[in-house]
Design a protein that fits this description.
Layout lengths: L7 E5 L4 H17 L4 E6 L3 H9 L3 E4 L11 H23 L4 E4 L5 H10 L4 E5 L6 H7 L4 E4 L12 E3 L13 H7 L8 E5 L6 H8 L8 E5 L2 H7 L10 E4 L5 H7 L2 E4 L3 H9 L4 E3 L9 H11 L3 E3 L7 H12 L2 H11 L7 H13 L1
Parallel strand pairs: 1-2, 1-4, 2-3, 4-5, 5-6, 6-7, 8-9, 8-11, 9-10, 11-12, 12-13
Helix pairs in contact: 1-2, 1-14, 3-4, 6-9
Length: about 375
C-alpha cells in the first residue's frame, strides 16, 4: 500500500505521554505499511514532547497553541484572537512541510493544527483515547473524516463517523526475564513487586501515600514519582531495607509492568492500555479533576470486568492501599482471574488498524 505519490502525515499531539505515545504508535504502523510516507509531529515546546518524538526518530515541529479557557477572564477574552493567530501559523507550517493528511491525538497542538487542516481541505483524522472526550475532540470530530476511539462509550459524544479500535500502544519489546529486569534496578526476584505510576506527570496524592508504605510491607516497589516529586522522594531509595526503585520518567515502563505482580496507577487511557496488554491486575486511583470525570469512567469500565479495583482519590490512605494490594497479592487465584479479565481491554492491533484505514482513505 505504499503508492508512488509522496505523502506527508502530520501528527498533532503533545503535553503528556498519554497523547504522544498513541500517536507515535500509529506513526510507527504507517511507517511500516507505507515506508515512503513522510511523518512529522506538531507538538508543544515542552521538553517531554521533543524528547519522546525525537527518541522515536521523527521530525519535531513546535507550534504555538493555547489551552482552552475554563472560566471567564482575560484568557477567555484573548482566546479568539490567540486561536486565529495560532491557526494562521499552523496553516503556514502545513503548507511549508507539504502535509497531505492530519492526525489529531489530543493536547493543545491539536486545536490549531486541526482547524488549519480543515480550512486547507486536508483529510483530518482524530484518535480519542478516553471514554469522555474533551471539548477540542468534540469540535474536531465535526470535521474529522473518521474519529478512532479507545473506549466505545466515547462515540456518543462525537459527531461524524466513529470507529472503535481500542487505544494504540507501541509494540515495545521486553528487555529480559522478570528476574533480569528486577536485578537491573537492584530488586529481588523472590519478592512480590508492586509498580506505582502516576503517569508521566506523576500523582502527588498517590506519592504521599506510597511514601508511608515504603519499607513497611513484605513487597517491594517500582515507583514512578513523576518529575515534580522525584527529588523529594528519592532519598527513600537509599534507606536500608527500603526495597524500592524510584524514577521520574522512563522508556522502560513496559519492562516494569511486566516485572510487577500488581500495578497501582491513575486511570489514564494509555496507562490502562499498557497494563491490559501485559495482563497485570490493577488498583486504579483515578485523577479526580480529569475532564468530564473520564478517568473514573475509564477505571469503572475495567473494574466491571474484574480486572481492577478502584479507590477514589479522596478515600486513598496508606491503610486502604495496603489492605487492597495485600488482598490481591495473597490470593493466587485472584491474581490469575484479574490478569485474565484485564486482558480483555488489550487491543494489540489498534495501531495497525488505524494506520490501514488512514492509508486507504489517502489513496
Amino acid at each position: 500500500m505504499s503508492g508512488s505519490r509522496h505523502r506527508v502525515a502530520g501528527f498533532a499531539a503533545g503535553g503528556t505521554g498519554g497523547h504522544l505515545v498513541p500517536a507515535i504508535a500509529i506513526a510507527d504502523a504507517i511507517g511500516k505499511l507505507s515506508p515512503s510516507c513522510e511523518i512529522l509531529f506538531f507538538a508543544t515546546s515542552r521538553p517531554i514532547d521533543r524528547t519522546l518524538i525525537q527518541a522515536h526518530g521523527y521530525k519535531y515541529v513546535p507550534v504555538l497553541s493555547y489551552p482552552l479557557p475554563r472560566s471567564i477572564g482575560t484568557d477567555a477574552l484573548l482566546f479568539p484572537f490567540r486561536l486565529v493567530l495560532s491557526v494562521l501559523l499552523a496553516m503556514e507550517k502545513l503548507k511549508r512541510f507539504g502535509v497531505s493528511v492530519v492526525v489529531l491525538a489530543g493536547g493543545y497542538p491539536s486545536v490549531p493544527i486541526g482547524f488549519a487542516g480543515y480550512l486547507m481541505r486536508k483529510p483530518v483524522f482524530l484518535q480519542e483515547q478516553n471514554s469522555v472526550p474533551g471539548v477540542a475532540s468534540r469540535v474536531a470530530s465535526s470535521f474529522a473524516r473518521i474519529s478512532f476511539v479507545g473506549f466505545p462509550e466515547a462515540a456518543k459524544y462525537l459527531k461524524g463517523r466513529v470507529v472503535f479500535t481500542g487505544n494504540p500502544i507501541p509494540r515495545r519489546g521486553i528487555s529480559g526475564t522478570r528476574e533480569e529486569i528486577l536485578a537491573s534496578v537492584g530488586l529481588s526476584p523472590q519478592k512480590k513487586t508492586v509498580l506505582i505510576t502516576g503517569g508521566s506527570q506523576g500523582a502527588s496524592s498517590l506519592n504521599r501515600v506510597v511514601s508511608q508504605l515504603v519499607g513497611k510491607t513484605d513487597w517491594q516497589f517500582i515507583w514512578q514519582t513523576g518529575r515534580t516529586d522525584f527529588v523529594r522522594y528519592l532519598p527513600l531509595s537509599r534507606q536500608e531495607e527500603s526495597s524500592v526503585y524510584i524514577f521520574d520518567f522512563t522508556e522502560r515502563i513496559a519492562d516494569f509492568i511486566f516485572a510487577s505482580d500488581v500495578v497501582v496507577a491513575r486511570a489514564g487511557a494509555l496507562t490502562l492500555a499498557e497494563i491490559a496488554a501485559l495482563g497485570k491486575p490493577a488498583v486504579l486511583v483515578p485523577y479526580p479533576y480529569a475532564t468530564g470525570g473520564h478517568q473514573l469512567l475509564n477505571a469503572k469500565a475495567v473494574a466491571s470486568s474484574g480486572g481492577a479495583v478502584v479507590i477514589r482519590d479522596n478515600e486513598l490512605s496508606p491503610q486502604l492501599l495496603e489492605e487492597t494490594v495485600a488482598g490481591i497479592l495473597s490470593d493466587e487465584e485472584k491474581l490469575d482471574s484479574m490478569s485474565e479479565a484485564i486482558r480483555c481491554f488489550a487491543h494489540p492491533d489498534a495501531a495497525e488498524r488505524i494506520a490501514n484505514i488512514i492509508l486507504e482513505e489517502m489513496e
